[in-house]
Write a structure and sequence with these properties.
The chain is α/β, with parallel strands linked by helices. Helices cover about 35% and strands about 15% of the residues. The longest helix is centred in the N-terminal third of the chain and has 21 residues. It is globular, with a radius of gyration of 17 Å.
Amino acid sequence: MQRPDWAPDTIDIERPSVARMYDYYLGGSHNFAADRAAAQAMVAAVPEAPLAAQANRAFLRRAVHHLAEAGVRQFLDIGSGIPTVGNVHEIAQRIDPASRVVYVDVDPVAVAHSREILAGNDRATIVQEDLRHPEEILAHPDTRRLLDLSQPVAVMIVAVLHFVPDDDRPAELLATLRDALAPGSYLVLSQASDDGRAGEERAEAERVYRRTDSPLTIRNRAELTALFDGFELVDPGVVWVPQWRPDTPESAEDAERAVFMGGVGQLGD
């Protein structure tokens, strides 16, 4: 396969990347044949996968809009992925141009394209780091430059946690982030759930993602809710993402086929 100009030399274009598979689901063009083949295998196992990715992206947009309208002016988007329409800084800065956003992703393609998009925006940046290293994210000079952790911050971890296995202690990772935040901060989470789905769908989805750089760990509603430890859930709690403050009642129909569950929690005093 010929390597396109935008692909860093350091990446293996023959191995599927979850960030580039997600880009494919969303109709993007920054993916390779290996990513498309794996994504197509996922669609064969779970036909709703592309629509679920779009619903998850819509959840992120609604959550950011809600928090920005509530007065949040700082956002830390961990696992931000390859940029697409409706990025966090676009939504937040439309409400208040002074809003500051730090994106974090481990994928070199996502980082390279984020830097290109953010060139000239002195209130948004991208840090190349992994959710599994929360201390490094918080201590990074660009994080410290843009975010004042003594003031409320919205931490976005959207469609990421299913790539963090239990052995990596996701609850501890989130606790490290929580303990660094000021009262009034928020946590936005979503991840793939198997609530109400056939066991063979879960098995096939896990088999597909074992071919990638990040195998899948699916969690149910109770497990995702537990990860909001220390935060008070914002109504309507942890739900299928189309059900979280939908723009219209119709957009929440058939929500149980959404694949992703999500919610928003606020940190008290």
